[in-house]
TrEMBL record, chain A:
It is a multi-pass membrane protein. InterPro entries: MetI-like (IPR000515), MetI-like_sf (IPR035906), Sugar_ABC_transporter (IPR052730). Keywords: Membrane, Transmembrane, Transmembrane helix, Transport. It comes from Bradyrhizobium sacchari. Belongs to the binding-protein-dependent transport system permease family. This is Carbohydrate ABC transporter membrane protein 1 (CUT1 family). It holds the Pfam family BPD_transp_1. The chain crosses the membrane at residues 12-34, 75-95, 101-121, 156-180, 213-230, 264-285.
UniProtKB/TrEMBL annotation, chain B:
It is a peripheral membrane protein. This is Carbohydrate ABC transporter ATP-binding protein (CUT1 family). It is found in: Cell inner membrane. Belongs to the ABC transporter superfamily. GO terms for cellular component: ATP-binding cassette (ABC) transporter complex, substrate-binding subunit-containing. It comes from the Bacteria. It holds the Pfam family ABC_tran.
Amino acid sequence: MDKTVNQKAWFLVLPVFLVVAFSAVLPLMTVVNYSMQDTFGNNQFFWNGVGWFKELLDPSTDLGGRFLASLGRNLFFSMVILAIEVPLGIVVALSMPREGWTVAACLIILALPLLIPWNVVGTIWQIFGRPDIGLLGYVLNAIGIDYNYVSNEVDAWVTVIVMDVWHWTSLVALLCYAGLKSIPDAYYQAAQIDGASRWAVFKAIQLPKMNRVLLIAVLLRFMDSFMIYTEPFVVTGGGPGNSTTFVSIELVKIALGQFDLGKAAALSLVYNLIILIVCWVFYTVMTNAGVERKVQASSEPAAEPKPSAALKPVPALKPKEGVA
Amino acid sequence: MARIDLVDLAHSYGGNDAPQESFALKPVTMTWRQGGAYALLGPSGCGKTTLLNVISGIITPSRGKILFDGVDITPLSTQKRNIAQVFQFPVIYDTMTVGQNLAFPLKNRGVPKADIDRRVAEIGRLLDLEPYLNRKATRLTADAKQKISLGRGLVRNDVAAVLFDEPLTVIDPELKWQLRSKLKALHRELDLTMIYVTHDQTEALTFADTVVVMHDGRVVQSGTPAELFDKPAHTFVGYFIGSPGMNILPAEVRGREAVIDGHVIALNRAYDKLPAGAKIEIGVRPEFVEAVAPGPGLLTAKIERIDDLGRIRFARTRLGDAKLAARAPAGFAGSDGSAGLKFDPSHVHVYADSLLVEGAA
C-alpha cells in the first residue's frame, strides 16, 4: 500500500487535542497530583507517593476499610437493581400497547419519573416513607408492619432500592419498547404460522431482537447506579450507621467533610477505574456474544470495532471529577 | 392436506358497514382442490395478500366462511389452522441454527424428536441446505435465508396448504428461476396444496396449474394458463396476461358481426342477446391479428412502430384513439406507415361491461 505520509496532518488533530486536554486531561491530572500528596490546609502539600493507594486497598486501615465496605455495598446495590429493573422493564415493555392513543399515554406516564430531578426524587421518597407523616410509612405501620428507614438497616435498603426501581425502570422499559417496536410484523405472523407459544415468541424473536437495547440499558443502569449519590444521600444520608453509605457518599465525606484531598483523590481515581473496567468487560462480553455467532455463521472474519469499547464509558469520568 | 372452500368470503379493513366498493376483498366463493398448485395473480393492491392472510388466519374476514375439508375453521386462530405460510421477506430466528429454524414449527407442535430430525434432514436435502444445518442462521445471504423460510413452510407434511406471499421478491433473478423450479418439483414430490401469490405473470404461469387472477379485490378468473390466454373472462385478464396484452376495441356487435369504424369484422359466434346499454368491446390477442398491406375490406390502421421480439414481431398501430398490437409476418415492413388488419374470427371475443359474453354457436 502506497500511502502518502503527511506529517502536517497532525496539526488538524491539534484543536481536538487541546479541547480534550483542557476538559479531561488537565482536571484528571490535578486529581492524580492530589492523590500523591497530603495536605493540612493553608495550601500546604506534602509528598506521599502511592501511600494513599496502599492504604485504600488495605482493609485494616480506616480509609481502606471504609472504601472497601462502601464498594461492596455499591456493587450489591447495582446487582440488586439490575436484577429487578431489567426483567421488570422487559415485562413492562411487553405489556405496553402497540397502537392507538394508549401508546402516547403509556409513554408519557413512563417518562414522568425520568423527568424528576434526583434530589426531588429523594425528597419525595424521604417524605413518602416517613412513619409519622408519609403515606407509605404511615400505612405500612398502620397495617402492622414495623417500617422505619431511619432506624432499620433493611428498611433503609428496601426504600433506596424501591426508589431506584421506581425512578429508573421506565428507562429500561422505554429502551425495550423501542427495540420491540422495530421488529417487523412478519416475524410475529411467521411465529403464529409456526405455532409458537407466547414464551417461544419471546425467546425466539423478542429477546434476541432486544439484545442490543438491553446491552445499552444494562450499561447505563450499571454506571448510574454505581455512581449513585443524591437519592440515598437525601433519603437516608448514608445511614442508619453506614449501612447505605455508597462509594460516592463516602468520597464526599472524605473530600468535603474531612477535607482529606489526597485520600479523596486516590479514592476517586480507583473508583473511576473500576467503572471503566466493569463497563469495558460488560461491553466486550456482550458484543462478543454476538460476534461469535456471526463468525460461526459466515466464516468470514467479522471485524467488530473494538476501540469504541474503550471510548464508550468515558462519560463516566466527568461527574467523578466534579465530586472530587 | 385438505380441500379449501371459500364461501361468500369478504374482507373490509373499514368494517362490514363500509360500502362494498371499498372492500379489500370482495365477496368470493371458490374451491381450492387438494394437491393443486395455484397462483394468485394480480397487480399490487388487488387484494391477493389479504386473501392469503384470511386463509392463513392472520386476518379474520369480516364476512363469510372458510372450510377445510368441509369443516368451518373461520373462527380458529392461525396456530390451530394447520396451515403454512412463507412471507415476502425472510423471517429467521436469529439465535437458532438453520436446522433449529427448520425444526421450530414441528417442535412447537410437540412432534417426536426422531420425526423432527428426519423431516429436517429431508427438507434440508430438498432445499440444498444440508451444509448449513448446524450453522447459525444469521449472516447467511438473503436467498439462503429465504430458503430457510421456505423450508419452515414445507417442513410439516400434514398442512392443509402452504401459502407463499411473493416469496421470491428478494432473490436474484438467476436464483429465482432455480428456486421456482425447485418449488414446482417439491410440489410434485410432497403432494401439498400450494397457493402462490405474485404480481409476475411469468412466475404465476410457470408455477401453477391453476391461475387465479384478481383485480380490484375481486377474483376475475381462475383457470389454467391456456384458458387465461385463450379465453380471458374479463378484459383485465386479457390485458394483464400476455405480452403485449390483449387488444380491447370498442365496437358495435350485431349477430355474427362486429363493426369498428364502419368496417365489418366477422365473428365465429352469434351475439344477439347483448345486454342493453352495456359498454360493448371486442378483445383479440395480438397473436391473432395479422398486419398486412392495406387492401379492400381490411381495417386500416396507422403504424406507430414495429417491435422485434426476436421470435416474433409486433406492429404497434393506432386506430383512431385506440391502440392495437398485431403480429407482423416476416417480410412485412409497413413502409407506407399503414397496415391492413386481418382478424382470426375464432379468437375474437366480445365483452359487455368488461365481462366475456359467450355467443351462440
